[in-house]
Design goal:
Elements: E1 2-7, H1 20-32, E2 35-40, E3 43-44, H2 53-69, E4 75-77, E5 81-83, H3 88-93, E6 105-109, H4 116-128, E7 132-135, H5 147-157, E8 160-164, H6 165-169, H7 174-185, E9 191-193, H8 206-217, H9 219-234
Parallel strand pairs: 1-2, 2-4, 3-5, 5-6, 6-7, 7-8, 8-9
Length: about 240
């Protein structure tokens, strides 16, 4: 049974599900993939666009009621995927950026072409406010070429690292594949999550990724990355 900490399940908030039918479809996929807990993480772009908090909480509640009614064993938590902008630290400190399950862990993403210095400064700013930066889909950032660059985020700022399930299954170009392999071999990855959207090609691949991780890196790492580490994070969850 898996825990997904990065998922665009809640409809009408971002480029994830666009209607309740889309949410329902993503729930079916999650259940088929043996996911039993999801931290819902709509995009938030501090300083650029207001986050529709009221709609988010209303649609989340509607989804929870549906799960109860249908007797589906899937627990939902609040969260967001915050694009790192100059406004992010202030809005975070004001409580305007939903953290992962209400904990001190914050899922942050960057533009693919942001510089290494920008990523490093972001990790430092988030950490200095008492939060733990969780780097969303770390495999996407062009400035990251070596596993040691990622190690520095962890050693210097206590950052945690998320990789998408689809990334584990896909073949990459030679150098990118080597970078991804090193991340796993050096035990720098903390979470495998789906980053599921209600879009073609952004499906749930959790069960398949678990199988592949087991083959490549062993059952212990597969368990840790698909639910063990996430369960530790959820042990600090604040009910919302
Ligand atoms: Fe995402």
């Amino acid at each position: 049974m898996f825990v997904d900490i990065h998922h665009h399940l809640i409809y009408g908030i971002d480029d994830g599900a666009q209607s309740f039918a889309g949410t329902e479809k993503m729930i079916r996929q999650a259940v088929e993939n043996q996911v039993h807990a999801i931290i819902t993480t709509p995009h938030i772009t501090p300083g650029h666009a207001p986050f529709p908090m009221e709609d988010y909480l209303k649609h989340l509640q509607e989804t929870r009621e549906y799960l109860d009614r249908e007797n589906i064993d899937l627990t939902l938590y609040t969260g967001s995927e915050a694009l790192y902008t100059p406004s992010t630290p202030y809005q975070l400190s004001e409580g305007k950026v939903p953290t992962l399950a209400g904990t001190r862990y914050v899922l942050i993403e960057f533009s693919p072409d942001d510089t290494y210095k920008y990523l490093t400064d972001a990790a430092g700013a988030v950490e200095s406010l008492g939060y733990v930066p969780v780097f969303a889909h770390v495999e996407r950032y062009e400035c990251l070429k070596k596993a040691d660059q990622v190690r520095r985020f962890k050693e210097d700022y206590g950052a945690l690292i998320q990789v998408n399930a689809a990334t584990v299954l896909r073949k990459h170009s030679f150098f990118h594949q080597r970078f991804i392999n090193h991340l796993f071999e050096d035990e720098l990855v903390d979470f495998i999550s789906t980053d599921c959207h209600d879009l073609p090609g952004r499906d749930n691949h959790m069960a398949e990724a678990f199988d592949q991780l087991t083959v490549l890196y062993g059952i212990d790492m597969a368990h840790a990355l698909t639910h063990g580490n996430a369960e530790m994070l959820l042990s600090e969850a604040v009910k919302q």
